[in-house]
Amino acid sequence: MTETNDEKIIQLQKDLDNAKHITYLTGAGVSTHSNIPDYRSKTGIYNGVSESPEVLLSEDTLYHHPEKFHDFVMKNMYFPNAKPNLIHEKIAASCNQKGQLITQNVDGLDKKAGNKHVIEFHGNLYDIYCTKCHEKISYEEYKKSYLHEKDNGIIRPGIVLYGEAIDQKKLIDSVNAVSSSDMIVICGTSFVVYPFAQLLSYRQPDTKIWVLNNTRIVNNDGVNSIIDDALATFSKLKI
Ligand SMILES: [Zn+2]
């Protein structure tokens, strides 16, 4: 007999209530409800050639074609007026009580929602600095130019570019969170980006796993899935 989504939500609510420590793993599908598009689905057109985010968001583009990099991030990634939605808010409330969020999102909305236990796995778009003098730069200044007025250094956001390594401390903290949880909730991510997707392998064997997504994740052995819009699912949860 197949359970309906409503029956599954009752079980999910029980698991959330009974869990001692929950780790949430989230991705772009959470922030699309705040009108932030998934930049991985975007391309840029330069000199009539369409270029992928893997190329545009690389160190090579940042240092050798900084205008192209700047143009792409400003058009496709920065939405400074975006507000956290119900999913950010409920995850924040749950984490502040007994959990940890590890997010792939770089938009800073989880912190805006008041979440005090956030690991921004891929960094934060608003941690902007000059690559020459390492001075912090405001979003307003970066918006005007990709060059630091003072020393002509190239300005960049503190996000992990394609080909760059994840911060070691964040990686260790994330592994520790996953391995010390009795429940893991995956939301808004197809879970294909490495090493983020690998985090799940550090779980304890009896840890409960829930996926709240509009698509299944690839390796779903022993995983409870509610395949629906995550906003609809969260709106039914009492957190
Ligand atoms: Zn500088």
Describe this structure in words.
By secondary structure, this protein is of the alpha/beta class. It has two domains: 145 residues, TPP-binding domain (Rossmann fold); 75 residues, SIR2/SIRT2 'Small Domain', CATH 3.30.1600. Helix content is 33%, strand content 21%. The chain has a six-stranded parallel β-sheet, with helices on both faces.
Task: Provide a concise account of the structure shown.
The protein is an alpha/beta fold. The protein is built from 10 helices and 11 strands. It has a 6-stranded parallel beta sheet, sandwiched between helices. A 3-stranded antiparallel beta sheet has the order 7-6-8.
Topology summary:
Elements: H1 5-18, E1 22-26, H2 28-31, E2 44-46, E3 49-51, H3 53-56, H4 59-64, H5 66-76, H6 86-98, E4 99-103, H7 109-112, E5 118-120, E6 123-130, E7 136-137, H8 139-144, E8 155-159, H9 168-179, E9 183-187, E10 208-213, E11 224-227, H10 230-235
Parallel strand pairs: 1-4, 1-9, 4-5, 9-10, 10-11
Antiparallel strand pairs: 2-3, 6-7, 6-8
The structure holds zinc ion.
Zinc ion is lined by residues 130, 132-133, 135, 148, 150-151, 153.
